[in-house]
Amino acid sequence: MLRGRAAVVTGSTSGIGLGIAVALAAQGADVLLNGFGKAEEIEDVRSSLARAHGVRVSHSAADMSKPDEIDGMIAQATRDLGGVDILVNNAGIQHTAPVREFPIERWIAIIAINLTAAFCATRAALPHMESRGWGRIINIASAHGLVASIHKAAYVAAKHGVLGLTKVVALETATTGVTCNAICPGWVLTPLVQRQIDEMAAREGLSGDEARARLLGEKQPSLEFATPEQIGAVSAFLCSDAAAQIRGAALPVDGGWTAQ
Ligand code: NAD
Q1: How many Å apart are CA 44 and CA 58, to the nearest integer?
Q2: Best CA proximity match to 17, nearest among 56, 80, 64
Q3: Using 50, 70 and 90 to split pLDDT, how confident is the model at 131?
Q4: What is the three-state SS of 105-150?
Q5: C-beta of 254 in contact with ligand 1 (< 6 A)
Q6: Which of 9, 14, 224, when mutated, tests ligand 1's pocket best, judged by the most ligand atoms within 8 Å of its CB?
Q7: Which label site among 21, 136, 138, 208 has the fewest CB atoms less than 10 Å from its CB?
Q8: Cα(185)–Cα(195) distance, rounded to whole angstroms?
């Protein structure tokens, strides 16, 4: 379905972003991976993805908190893959603390990586998509783009902002072949969430299993994690022709979290 399309997936050396990169490559897209990690591990992922699906895969270590590096990543995608047809703004970080104790540096970093980076990458990639008359921008927001939780001021603010950005870009591209939508995952068991489980276990004197069950029980009615593969499959669907008139949507994949 996506043979000949070029996809940039930010934050795709781990977790949800990697699940999305795999799903798009499986549909035939060439992929630019982005994110941090050990060089040998990233090279393993890159080469095995390219081999498994017969697609071009490259990697950019651009730091999503730095606008000039984001421009450099989009320029690299045009060099390595011949353009940018699909942009998935996925890179994200978390920090939890009550508002009155929330460190300003953490606020600035979260807004930069979780929100401003999506704006910068969209701004840089849109001309490529518009010149080809086709494009897909997918923003990985969160259930926290729709509702709030305590101790996540910066994250909730950034993710609500991502949904606002999604709607504006969807409207500005409404008469073109470019669409912009957001996916709002609930809990997905990735390193980002494992850290929160470990903190809860230490704070409350729980085992890992108990902390995991408590985390799900507090928010996610299905009591099951969503998976990177599921978020990848929903992303591939948003790239399909069937999704051409889905514009400006915020699609929850959250086990019922935001239905409550
Ligand atoms: P993760 O920690 O497993 O992966 C984050 C990725 O982003 C990694 O590849 C990392 O290298 C990269 N990254 C971090 N900082 C970066 C930077 N400055 N520049 C470039 N890359 C950077 O996290 P995840 O759980 O897979 O989260 C991915 C996205 O999904 C985030 O936007 C997160 O907010 C969102 N999300 C996650 C969950 C969940 O339950 N895991 C739920 C809702 C939304």
Answers
A1: 12
A2: 64
A3: very high
A4: HHHHHHHHHHHHHHHHHHHHHHHHHHHHCCEEEEEECCHHHCCCCC
A5: no
A6: 14
A7: 208
A8: 17
HSE-CB for 117 with a 13 A CA cutoff: 34
In the annotation, is 155 catalytic?
Answer: yes
User: What tokens appear for 219 in the block?
Assistant: 């928010």
Is the pTM higher than 0.85? The answer reads: yes
Q: Which domains does the chain have, with CATH numbers?
A: 6-186+227-253 (3.40.50.720), 188-225 (no CATH)
Catalytic residue from among 35, 53, 88, 155:
155
Task: Report the distance separating Cα 255 and Cα 192, nearest Å.
Answer: 18
Helix axis angle for 117-132 and 153-172, nearest 10°, is 20
**Contact 180 CB / ligand 1 (< 6 Å):** no
